[in-house]
Design a protein that fits this description.
The chain is mainly α. The protein folds into two domains: 52 residues, Arc Repressor Mutant, subunit A (Orthogonal Bundle), CATH 1.10.10.60; 132 residues, Tetracycline Repressor, domain 2 (Orthogonal Bundle), CATH 1.10.357. 73% of the residues lie in helices and 0% in strands. Helix 9 crosses helix 10 and helix 10 packs antiparallel against helix 11. The two termini are 30 Å apart.
């Protein structure tokens, strides 16, 4: 995680993140002024600026916390997964869809604000690239696609697939879908497995 954005470190910063999360769940984050966010966190407006330059930067950090927090599969990823790369990919996708379901207010708002707040995309990109780095070696060792035996090519393909996952989850969670979460994860798993040559 050398190049990943920092994570929240102290009580005041954690309080700001929790205040932002509460406002996002209530659908009030974008309309709430910084002074009110700071007040809800129990600090001054100047205290807010000690931690963040803008509401967008606060949301970007919340995205980082949310995405890393939702990747509990990392701690349990083992050598056994290398023997079943398709199964490992499916478990990663199931965990990602679950994270989107549980954190749709945060991730949905971040998707909507990213075009006007580049720092959000910057944080999200760092997470996507770390996921690709984490799983690229498994793809290289297992793929049937000659071009993906090159680690950089496998990594780039994985980053592309991560963005496809995020877009599909956004449309599914925020705009609604008749498809179940399990069916979404299965459909995306089929696409990932074919695209990565892991059939």
């Amino acid at each position: 995680m050398q190049d990943a954005p920092r994570r929240a470190g102290d009580r005041n910063e954690a309080a700001l993140l929790e205040a932002a999360r509460d406002l996002l769940r209530a659908g009030e984050f974008q309309a709430t002024p910084i002074r009110q966010i700071a007040k809800q966190a129990g600090i001054s407006r100047q205290g807010f600026y000690f931690y963040y330059k803008s509401k967008g930067e606060l949301l970007a950090q919340l995205v980082t916390e949310t995405l890393y927090g939702g990747q509990v599969w990392r701690e349990t990823f083992s050598d056994a997964d290398l023997n079943d790369p398709a199964g490992a990919i499916r478990r990663v996708l199931e965990a990602s869809v679950t994270t989107w379901r549980e954190q749709r207010a945060v991730l949905g708002a971040a998707s909507e604000m990213a075009p006007s707040e580049p720092v959000i995309l910057e944080h999200w990109t760092a997470v996507a690239e770390e996921v690709a780095d984490f799983l690229a070696d498994m793809v290289v060792a297992s793929t049937s696609i000659e071009a993906l035996r090159d680690r950089d090519a496998a990594r780039r393909m994985f980053v592309t697939l991560v963005w496809m996952l995020e877009r599909n989850c956004y449309m599914h969670m925020v705009h609604g879908s008749d498809e179940s979460d399990a069916a979404l994860a299965e459909r995306l798993g089929d696409i990932y497995i074919r695209a990565l040559g892991l059939e």
